[in-house]
Design goal:
The chain has twelve helices and eight strands. The chain is α/β, with parallel strands linked by helices and 249 residues long. Strand 7, helix 11 and strand 8 form a beta-alpha-beta unit. 43% of the residues are buried. It binds 1,3-dihydroxyacetonephosphate. 1,3-dihydroxyacetonephosphate binds next to strand 8.
């Protein structure tokens, strides 16, 4: 990480875990054991129904609450969907977009792009995920794949809004598998992502963008990953479900 130019953001992604009651219990405990230092921003992205409990419990803290998805439309006949401005009004600051688990359910780069634009318009900070499968890595097309995801995902994002976007590099083969990318592998792709942003928006903006690594990050490997110059934080699944583990990271 490089704290001179950009924010370090440690974010949890709860995925489809915890009820509102469990959310309140987690947040209450987390609040008491959370160190007071200000060296990074901390976010917890939780299931939609848990947002009110999370926001209420964390009201007087610096922990930002986020959602795990949003719809690209502002309102309308989209049964079961949630718009970005609804998340903002509910107290969210962040929204995870384009997670590989959602892409596996059919979300395309065009969908991710529309959601990124909607989130930015509403005033949310999108955490836009990208990452290659094991097959793609073994075929040697990781950088091409990531370039495509970044270019399509950020299409039409204006210069004055791009600084708000957080990019999370999550190699699919490292998610929930206990198999972390080595610090070198993660660093290589995160540096490549910054280069891609530089080609799109110039050096000054590229330098200020927060790039996270996600995929089996835990207390035991976080320090080494976060020591890499282009890794500015983590997007943490499993280890964000236990207050003590998340605090340790
Ligand atoms: P794990 O930390 O459980 O591997 O999940 C990573 C992830 O998908 C975060 O979005």
């Amino acid at each position: 990480m490089n704290r001179k130019y950009r924010k370090t953001v440690i974010a949890g992604n709860w995925k489809m875990n915890k009820t509102p009651t469990e959310t309140k219990a987690f947040m209450t405990e987390f609040k008491t054991i959370m160190p007071r230092g200000r060296w990074c921003d901390v976010a917890l992205c939780v299931p939609a129904v848990c947002i009110p409990a999370a926001v209420r419990t964390m009201r007087e803290t610096r922990i930002g609450i986020g959602a795990e998805n949003c719809n690209a439309n502002a309102s309308g006949a989209y049964t079961g969907e949630i718009a970005a401005n609804m998340l903002l009004d509910a107290g969210c600051k962040y929204v995870i977009l384009g997670h590989s688990e959602r892409r596996a359910m059919g979300e395309t780069d065009a969908d991710v792009n529309a959601k990124v634009l909607a989130a930015l318009n509403a005033g949310l900070t999108p955490i836009m995920c990208c990452g290659e499968s094991l097959e793609q890595r073994q075929s040697g097309i990781t950088t091409e794949w990531i370039t495509m995801q970044i270019k399509l995902g950020l299409a039409g994002v204006p210069e004055d809004k791009i600084r708000k976007v957080i990019i999370a590099y999550e190699p699919i083969w490292a998610i929930g598998t206990g198999k972390t990318a080595t610090a070198e592998q993660a660093a290589e792709v995160c540096t490549f992502i910054r280069t891609t942003v530089r080609h799109l928006y110039g050096a000054r903006i590229a330098r200020s963008i927060t790039i996270q690594y996600g995929g089996s990050m835990k207390p035991a490997n976080a320090a080494e990953l976060l020591a890499q110059p282009d890794i500015d934080g983590g997007l943490i699944g499993g280890a964000a479900l236990k207050p003590d583990q998340f605090v340790d990271i």
